Amino acid sequence: MKFGGTSMAGIERIRSVAARVKREVEAGHEVAVVVSAMAGETDRLVGFCREASPLYDRAEYDVVVSAGEQVTSGLLAIALQAIGVPARSWLGWQLPVRTDDAHAKARIGAIDTAALDASLSAGEVAVIPGFQGVTDGGRSTTLGRGGSDTSAVAVAAAMRAERCDIYTDVDGVYTTDPRIVPRARKLAKVTYEEMLELASVGAKVLQTRSVGLAMKEGVRVQVLSSFTGAPDGEGAPMADTLPGTMIVGEEEVDDMERQLITGIAHDKNEAKITLTQVPDRPGAVASIFAPLADTGINVDMIIQNVAHIHDGATGSTDVTFTVPAADLARSLDVLEQGRAAIGYERMVHDTRVAKISVVGVGMRSHAGVAATMFTTLGARGINVQAISTSEIKVSVLIDEDETELAVRVLHTAYGLDAA
Amino acid sequence: MKFGGTSMAGIERIRSVAARVKREVEAGHEVAVVVSAMAGETDRLVGFCREASPLYDRAEYDVVVSAGEQVTSGLLAIALQAIGVPARSWLGWQLPVRTDDAHAKARIGAIDTAALDASLSAGEVAVIPGFQGVTDGGRSTTLGRGGSDTSAVAVAAAMRAERCDIYTDVDGVYTTDPRIVPRARKLAKVTYEEMLELASVGAKVLQTRSVGLAMKEGVRVQVLSSFTGAPDGEGAPMADTLPGTMIVGEEEVDDMERQLITGIAHDKNEAKITLTQVPDRPGAVASIFAPLADTGINVDMIIQNVAHIHDGATGSTDVTFTVPAADLARSLDVLEQGRAAIGYERMVHDTRVAKISVVGVGMRSHAGVAATMFTTLGARGINVQAISTSEIKVSVLIDEDETELAVRVLHTAYGLDAA
Questions:
Q1: B10 Cβ partners below 8 Å, 6+ apart?
Q2: Does B75 touch chain A if contact means CB atoms closer than 8 Å?
Q3: What is the pLDDT of residues A6-58, one digit of tens each?
Q4: Does the CA dihedral B67-B69-B70-B71 come out positive or negative?
Q5: For residue A71, what are the CA distances in angstroms to A47, A117, B91?
Q6: How many Cβ atoms sit within 10 Å of the Cβ of residue B66?
Q7: B61 touches chain A (CB under 8 A)
Q8: b/e burial code for range A61-92 (CB count within 10 A of at least 16 → b)
Q9: DSSP secondary structure, A151-209, as one string
Q10: Which of A11, A365, B140, B364 is the 20 to 30 Å CA partner of A133?
């Protein structure tokens, strides 16, 4: 069981978590619980580090920020004992959760489970702070923001757990954002690959890394709500938890329940850059994208228009692509410096764009998914500025103002609206 | 160097601490720094534990509350690096600081200094969270409130440090409380034994345990202020630190500088209990104090009045003694239960009392210290309710309202007023 920061925000909520854990224990299960820091605490600690030095040492940052989960793991152990459930905390260095030494964004190598297994067999609940680990050299590490989901999946994998239940602010994975489409349906099952596509394009339910790890290790992950009634986390602490969404391997989704399209995601955190009149010669495109890649900027969608024939012998072409909005300034800087090498005429950019993606493993065996998308959007006069596809996804870039309209009409077009 | 919670309260102050440490490094010293949690943070964490369960598991309490010093040790390391001083944090489990497993009040057994020595020799400042350690079984411990002073002395002893500088809210040890006697003088030197008596009777400069450890290990401790100008800690962060008070072995105080009396302490945290008409027979007194001792209550001053001869064959006596005010309710409870066994007539108590102590190693070789005390107090009409003495201390119990008057007249009588 993994509980996020909203579920751990204050003793009253930690008590509710303890009660929820007790129900699992009483159902006869051996339980390990992975916890986040209290909501807001990690931000407070990160703020201290930045204030102490903008160029803080990441090894010391890890010492500071890992304190948040340390506190909640001790408190949950106390709250469990208070209701008669034997429990103890296991800090990252105690288990240990071994990681590499990439401080502030460490990757888990292995988790020793001998002590953990013995503790669970003896009837104790193990409470494990998420987000933290320890290097072979004995220094504290953290996994990067949102790393507690990854910790939970890693612990579940190491223990060969039957299930990894991730309690969060939402009660499952929906066919699309219910705030946009009230008739969106909660999915009973979604495959790892679909979840990866949905998570990476803006359905912020689970950290992408944790889904990748679950897929690699074959961990069955369930997303469900810590609260009943109120998806914003302000509701009454959970009494009866509703079933959530199971994230499983493709073999666990049988053909009967398989939809053509599983969900529709939207993402407004992209920015579009267009370079005009790039010389149409070998290597021109490489001279654009190689420097961006070297700077660690992820280019997503790319379109190259047909070449214009100009006065001279060589044609030229406009190149349009997207980068994360957070990397826009750095991207423009890199491209400005490469102007002579690339030879473009003008550089224009636009952050008022949105990426809409339809996702589903079902599209592997069905043609026409992309065609339905273009037809549906075209019928509403929504202009497609760029396209990208994967085996189980089709994404288009549109004007940001048309996001909600596009999601709504596509949700209907693919038959996803609840009855 | 050890810095308390007021010195670590916020990044601005941590930066000042870093600057102070840098000056020691630039003076050519190898420095280890022991830090407290930010002022108020330990209370916040203890509050969480109590709220989670009044009967919290002390092992988990240690996991929770040790987080406060973990945070400040990482932040000070970052602040030091930011001003060009190589530094790293060493958590209790990393050094390790080995303790017994008496959680929440653990005692330090040994500190491994191999890694620490190597780090210092390599030119790094070691930043060590106070108050925390680890058991042989690998669980986190804390030393009890105020334990950071003890951590600092223990680290200094283990490293055979030349000096242990304890930066605190006050700028040294005074002949008495300067708020009562403005002409109180700061002492340049005080012996361990005097400091123990002064600390245990209410001069709250250093934790008693840390002084005892310093005496046992022969660590030269200096108490000095983190701040200049304002003893309440609200002043400007230290620019030039004034010399503080050295706490040293008796052999380091030469006869020339030795005063008859070193200081005068007062303590309002005592309560007086009187049992009337206790039968004057063998074992009666034991039947009072044995149950109190079994409950862990420290009885301090005891007076037994002369026996009254009553009608019967056996005489009776009134027995008066003091206990810490915090233990009064429990003491009354224990004595009420023992009423039949003790056979007293009435039990009365009074919390409006104060203990005034004159302390000085010089009194070993001089008679008349107690006589001067009684004469001086008597001349002002101050009634002495009880007396206790040690080799280097005379204490009297008086009415609480007369505390300030008594301290003032004694300070003058022993020639302690500054010129």
A1: B38
A2: yes
A3: 999 999 999 999 999 999 999 999 999 999 999 999 999 999 999 999 999 99
A4: positive
A5: 18, 23, 16
A6: 29
A7: yes
A8: bbbbbbbbbbbbbbbbbbbbbbeebebbbbbb
A9: HHHHHHHHTT-S-EEEEESSSS-BSS-TTT-TT--B-SEEEHHHHHHHHHTT-TTS-HH
A10: A11
Antiparallel, parallel or unpaired: β A263-267 and A353-359: antiparallel
pLDDT number for residue A236 = 43
Question: What domains, with CATH codes, occur in chain A?
Answer: 2-250 (3.40.1160.10), 259-419 (3.30.2130.10)
A56 touching B (Cβ < 8 Å): yes
Helical (H) or strand (E) element with A33? strand A32-35
A135-187 pLDDT per residue, tens: 999 999 999 877 999 999 999 999 999 999 999 888 889 999 988 999 999 99
A352-392: pLDDT as tens digits: 999 999 999 888 877 788 899 999 999 999 999 988 888 89
Q: Which two tokens stand for residue A109?
A: 């190598």
High-pLDDT (> 70) share of chain B, %: 93
* Residue A71 near chain B (CB below 8 Å): yes
- B78 closest CB neighbour out of A53, A71, A74: A53
Name the residue type at position B260. L
**Subunit contact A81:B51, Cβ cutoff 8 A:** no
Provide the 3-class DSSP secondary structure of residue B246.
strand
- Give the CA diameter of chain B: 85
Q: What does chain B come to in residues?
A: 419
Q: Quickly count: other Cβ atoms within 10 Å of residue A337's Cβ.
A: 11
On whether the CB atoms of residues B129 and B92 are closer than 8 A, the answer is yes
Q: Residue B91 corresponds to which tokens in the numbers above? A: 């958590």
φ and ψ of A142, to 5 deg:
-125, 160
Cβ–Cβ of B70/A70 closer than 8 Å?
A: yes
The answer to whether A38 touches A75, Cβ cutoff 8 Å, is no
